[in-house]
């Protein structure tokens, strides 16, 4: 229900042209206001506090829908931030999650923050506590990648922040889970575009999708998309409103691993047209590469999984996975 409702807004407000405009430095006000006014920011907030009280499992399809439209604002992160700030009043505006926080005598730095170029607030983990940092007081440094909204944010010593006890360890976990879901949604979009192009593009009197070499590549892409989607959805089966560590680690690892071959096959099948700015494919494959490393790539989360496997009493990897995501 929520996924269908938000899709109606995205069809009107989150067109490829709107995404390109925001990536080029345009104001995201129209898109953000339409979503915020519809109440989607409080999907995980309990009903007693004025939210929708949405089960975590239902959030997955919402995140997939956002990714299929190339969402250029931190809606997923803002929903997660409000869930992490349990009992605290969240500020209005865009909130994003910081993958890391570095504190030195000179101040604080959050490197490579997703949507750091736009966010009005940044929620970061400082040990077991949460820090809510004001975006308007930060020095923002862009990555230099064209169209990227990732930025490194820095604050001088003495910057006023809001400190919330507890839930600090959940930032990385939620960041991994939501980016796994976003990767799954973007991969589905890329697969749909690639399959449609292979069926429409004709060469030597027939569609290129009839050639066995193309069929093999699309089959491999389908396997990667389905595997990543299953792993990502499993991370949202928690009974509470926060994902579990190991299921999130597995989800992010598998989705990040799939991002590279999916993007590569998509561009291979599309040929020269796939790398052009005018064609929409690049809006999604850029996100695959960006979200792959957001809040840890597969290498990062494979280490977490490996440590858990070594400590487990499960007789095999399959048994470990079943017990983890059950």
TrEMBL record:
Domain of life, per lineage = Bacteria
KW Flavoprotein (keyword) present? yes
Which residue ranges does the record assign to the Acyl-CoA dehydrogenase/oxidase C-terminal domain? 176-309
Q: Name one Pfam family in it.
A: Acyl-CoA_dh_1
Which segments does the entry list as coiled coil?
none
State the needed cofactors, names only.
FAD
For the Acyl-CoA dehydrogenase/oxidase N-terminal domain, which residue ranges apply? 1-84
Family, according to the entry, reads as follows: Belongs to the acyl-CoA dehydrogenase family.
Keywords annotated in UniProt: FAD, Flavoprotein, Oxidoreductase
Q: Which PANTHER family match?
A: ACYL-COA DEHYDROGENASE, ACYL-COA DEHYDROGENASE FADE28
Name assigned to this protein: Acyl-CoA dehydrogenase
């Amino acid at each position: 229900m929520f996924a269908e409702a938000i899709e109606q807004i995205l069809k009107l407000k989150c067109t490829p042209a709107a995404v390109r405009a925001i990536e080029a430095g345009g104001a995201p006000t129209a898109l953000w206001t339409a979503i915020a006014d519809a109440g989607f920011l409080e999907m995980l907030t309990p009903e007693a506090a004025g939210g929708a009280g949405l089960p975590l499992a239902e959030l997955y399809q919402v995140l997939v829908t956002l990714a299929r439209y190339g969402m250029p604002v931190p809606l997923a992160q803002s929903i997660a931030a409000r869930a992490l700030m349990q009992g605290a009043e969240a500020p209005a505006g865009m909130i994003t999650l910081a993958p890391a926080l570095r504190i030195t005598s000179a101040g604080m730095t959050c490197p490579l923050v997703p949507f750091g170029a736009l966010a009005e607030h940044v929620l970061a983990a400082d040990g077991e506590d949460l820090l809510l940092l004001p975006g308007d007081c930060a020095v923002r440094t862009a990555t230099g990648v064209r169209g990227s909204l990732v930025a490194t944010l820095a604050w001088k010593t003495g910057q006023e922040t809001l400190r919330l006890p507890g839930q600090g360890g959940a930032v990385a976990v939620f960041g991994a889970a939501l980016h796994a879901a976003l990767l799954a949604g973007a991969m589905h979009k890329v697969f749909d575009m690639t399959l449609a192009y292979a069926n429409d593009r004709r060469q030597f009197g027939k569609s290129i999708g009839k050639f066995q070499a193309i069929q093999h590549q699309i089959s491999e892409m389908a396997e990667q998309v389905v595997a990543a989607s299953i792993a990502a959805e499993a991370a949202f089966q928690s009974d509470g409103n926060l994902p579990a560590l190991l299921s999130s680690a597995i989800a992010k690892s598998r989705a990040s691993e799939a991002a590279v071959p999916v993007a590569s096959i998509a561009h291979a099948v599309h040929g020269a047209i796939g790398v052009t700015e005018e064609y929409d494919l690049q809006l999604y494959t850029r996100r695959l590469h960006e979200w792959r490393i957001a809040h840890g790539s597969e290498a990062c989360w494979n280490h977490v999984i490996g440590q858990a496997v070594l400590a487990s009493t499960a007789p095999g990897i399959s048994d470990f996975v079943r017990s983890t995501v059950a």
